[in-house]
Design goal:
The chain is α/β, with parallel strands linked by helices and 454 residues long. The protein folds into two domains: 231 residues, Periplasmic binding protein-like II (D-Maltodextrin-Binding Protein, domain 2); 213 residues, Periplasmic binding protein-like II (D-Maltodextrin-Binding Protein, domain 2). It contains 19 helices and 16 strands. Helix 2 runs antiparallel to helix 16, helix 11 runs parallel beside helix 18 and helix 18 runs antiparallel to helix 19. It is globular. The two termini are 46 Å apart. The N terminus is likely disordered.
């Protein structure tokens, strides 16, 4: 398998160079003989936070690679790229982009999440033709599910370049104390999530009843992408990208609320979610069997703030996507997908697209994955020499196949906050599951175009 992918990398790398030279040859026609023409491209890349720095540096590496090809071909063209990296949160970063766009100073390449809003507003150009042209040379092995985050109105508008799946972290050492072997654990809780939420709850209850843990299952104390992942595990789709409408699936949401109420009665989930510090510390200390509040990058925080050791990470805890809670649903992870976009103000979109292509090469993917300790967003990344021996990345890699994007609808988080507040009321015994659904129906009536399904 590894040999197959390495061969593919070499072959497709050559094809990418050939395609690049063909496009550049068109540009060369417009350049004066023996006079170098420099095309300037600007990029503004968001982390958020410092862990995303390689997403910016990969744009610079892409320019270096493209210039190397042009130089070797004797082409009198060079690309100069200016990259700004921001550790801002999403909202202020988006505000800055819109201000820059209004002033006619938008970056040529940028990263954001709200694809539908950007496409409908004319802020970005479609990359559909680019992706189709270069599919066999670069985009062939991106995980297929990632294109869900990049496609709207049957067109591709951005390029995926990062994933950090949310899901379930659980304690293998607790299961060993219950008498399960490592082989048993893999069968019960496969890393690809092909088990059930019911099985996870069953194991959590055993751990609680045996007095091995204080908490069986903990979830987020507030709304967030992990909460949306739980909804999806129950089949509660909350957004229709085709109509850009929020969705209330009453029966699926009702099942979700009832399950949590049952878990509180069984003493698997506490009636009130504890604060973040308790969620993190009790899991690291082995006092919580599993947490549904985190993602594949959380161990870095556990190491820095809560004393998680490398030995414990390797031997005592493991990760899987949210297992399905009902039939007909697949294991699912959720991530706030950032995408590389090209602004509609870009004067040289073909060159910008080439830079993005080289910035998402197998090498670039591996660079970001190794630095961030997140799974590669393309399968060939798993076989790249710098990645193939990193046990942690290889272990969490199956979750990449299950990732779904967080919707970017303007009212999505208002909806999720309302749904989560109702969940807290159900778990606390203040309202029933049916009353929670009634509240959401009343909320839906205040939003234009919200779809309601029985």
């Amino acid at each position: 398998m590894r040999k197959k992918y390495i061969t593919k990398l070499v072959n497709t790398g050559l094809v990418a160079i050939i395609f690049s030279l063909l496009i550049c040859s068109v540009l060369i026609i417009g350049a004066m003989a023996n006079e170098e023409t420099v095309y300037e491209i600007t990029a503004n890349i968001i982390g958020p936070g410092p862990v995303g720095i390689k997403k910016a540096e990969n744009i610079e590496l892409a320019a270096n690679e493209l210039n190397r090809i042009l130089e070797n071909a004797g082409a009198p063209i060079r690309v100069k790229v200016t990259v700004d990296f921001s550790a801002l949160k999403w909202d202020p970063f988006a505000d800055k982009f819109y201000m820059d766009f209004k002033a006619g100073q938008a970056p040529d390449i940028f990263t954001l999440r709200n694809m539908v809003e950007l496409a409908k507003g004319g802020f970005i150009i479609s990359l559909d033709d680019h992706v189709k042209s270069f599919w066999d040379s670069n985009y062939y092995d991106f995980y297929p599910n990632l294109w869900e985050s990049a496609t709207w109105d049957n067109k591709v508008w951005g390029i995926p370049h990062d994933i950090s799946p949310t899901g379930v972290w659980y304690r293998k050492d607790v299961l060993r104390k219950l008498g399960y072997s490592d082989e048993d654990i893999v069968k019960l809780l496969p890393p690809d999530g092909s088990t059930t939420l019911g099985k996870l709850a069953e194991l959590a209850k055993k751990a609680v009843d045996a007095g091995l843990v204080e908490y069986g299952i903990l979830h987020r104390p507030s709304s967030g992408s992990g909460f949306y992942g739980i909804l999806l595990a129950f089949g509660a789709e909350a957004y229709n990208i085709n109509t850009d409408s929020l969705v209330l699936n009453k029966s699926a949401m009702l099942n979700m609320y009832k399950w949590h109420a049952d878990m509180v009665k069984a003493k698997v989930i506490p009636p009130e979610p504890p604060p973040w510090s308790t969620i993190h510390s009790t899991f690291v200390e082995g006092k919580t069997f599993c947490t549904m509040a985190s993602h594949v990058g959380t161990p870095a925080e556990w190491k820095e703030a809560y004393g998680l050791t490398d030995e414990a990470l390797e031997n005592d805890i493991d990760f899987l996507p949210f297992p399905p809670a009902v039939e007909g649903v697949n294991p699912v992870s959720v991530h706030d997908f950032p995408l590389y976009f090209i602004s509609s103000q870009c004067k040289h979109p073909e060159i910008a697209a080439l830079l993005i292509m080289f910035a998402t090469s197998p090498q670039a993917c591996a660079i970001h994955s190794e630095y961030s300790m997140r799974p590669p967003y393309r399968t060939s990344g798993l076989y790249y020499p710098t990645i193939e021996h990193i046990e942690y990345i290889q272990r969490i890699a199956p979750s990449a196949k299950t990732v779904r994007p967080v919707p970017t609808h303007a009212d999505f988080w208002t909806y999720m906050n309302r749904a989560f507040d109702a969940l807290k009321g159900v778990e606390a015994g203040i309202i029933t599951s049916a009353q929670a659904i009634s509240d959401l129906e009343n909320f839906a009536a205040t939003l234009e175009g919200m779809e309601i399904k029985d």
